Amino acid sequence: MNFFTNLFTHKKSPSVRTLAQLEFLEVDMHNHLLPGIDDGSISVKNSINYIQDLQKLGLKKFICTPHIMAGVHPNTKSTIEAAQTALISGLKDTGNDTPIFAAAEHMIDDGLTSLIQQDQLCIIPGGYVLIEMSYLSESKALFHTIRDIQKLGYKPILAHPERYNYYHSNFNIYKQIKDAGCLLQLNLLSLSRYYGVDTKAIAMTLLKSGMYDFAGTDLHHERHLEALQKIAEKYPVREMLKTSPILNQSLADHFNNSKSQGIAG
Q1: Alpha-carbon distance 127 to 133, whole Å?
Q2: The dihedral formed by the CA atoms of 45, 21, 211 and 51, expressed in degrees to the nearest 10
Q3: CA–CA separation, 45 vs 206, rounded Å?
Q4: Which domains does the chain have, with CATH numbers?
Q5: Which residue spans traverse the membrane (predicted)?
Q6: Where are the beta strands (DSSP E) in 76-182?
Q7: Angle at CA 63, nearest 5°, toward 237 and 17?
Q8: How far apart are CA 23 and CA 12, in angstroms?
Q9: In this structure, what DSSP letter does residue 255 have?
Q10: Residue 100: Cβ-neighbour burial (10 angstroms; 0-12, 13-18, 19+)
């Protein structure tokens, strides 16, 4: 291949600005990077590769939130801490000292009720609890769960509200959730059509209404990573999120003060 062929066929390298598109967030507070304990990363090696690629996008610290879901992903503080220890050890072996904190994404189910009763929730630095619902049907226990978490002194965050299709025709429900004191977390993939046109439309409406409090990658696998990279290349992410008071950076100080980057609560 001669000089001119190389000149006109070589792909343009992404600019530093593009690679660091997510730097303003600093902390990824929702992901499935802990290896081998849910439907996310399958190995320490996978997790390290994902983290290295997310760092190229500008993210610096990671709050890992594996599923706790009765009968599907029956994780406990013990299983989560073991996976966190394995990941931190693997990172150190590669000379990577990326801060890794472990929390969880709690499905609203009978198992969560038990964890609340025992005060055994996995807490995000700053006293936050990440919760989710089924994509198939609304949880009638949502507002009750919000109150019970608040009674323990924690602040609930509802993961990816834009993905609950049963709310798309009732925008007022999002206001009710916010009025109940529950914060909202955007999946960055929802900025594109990754989850569909309707999900993107709701996400944009919530953003423009100033209703999101946090943003996360919710990264599970390679397809998510590739989609995030495309979003960083094509979308002015920081500008898009300016209409909502995104609090990710505020987690950094709490993160630094958390003992041994372990599970709080």
Answers
A1: 20
A2: 10
A3: 36
A4: 19-257 (3.20.20.140)
A5: none
A6: 100-102, 105-107, 128-132, 155-159
A7: 30
A8: 22
A9: H
A10: buried
- Residue bearing tokens 């997790």: 47
Question: Do the beta carbons of residue 168 and residue 198 sit within 8 Å?
Answer: yes
Looking at residue 130, the DSSP 8-state letter turns out to be E
CA distance 192 to 230: 9
Residues of the chain with pLDDT under 70: 1-19, 255-265
pLDDT on residue 12: 46
Is the sign of the CA dihedral 206, 208, 210, 216 positive or negative?
Answer: positive
DSSP assigned state of 165: G
The angle formed by the CA atoms of residues 28, 188 and 100, to the nearest 5 degrees, is 15
Residues near 171 by Cβ (< 8 Å), separated by ≥ 6?
Answer: 202, 205
Q: Which helix (H) or strand (E) holds 227?
A: helix 222-234
**The dihedral formed by the CA atoms of 248, 130, 31 and 51, expressed in degrees to the nearest 10:** 50
pTM, two decimal places? 0.91
Give the span between the Cα atoms of 226 and 141, in whole angstroms: 35
Entry field: residues in the chain: 265
What is the pLDDT at residue 254? 76
d(CA 245, CA 230): 24
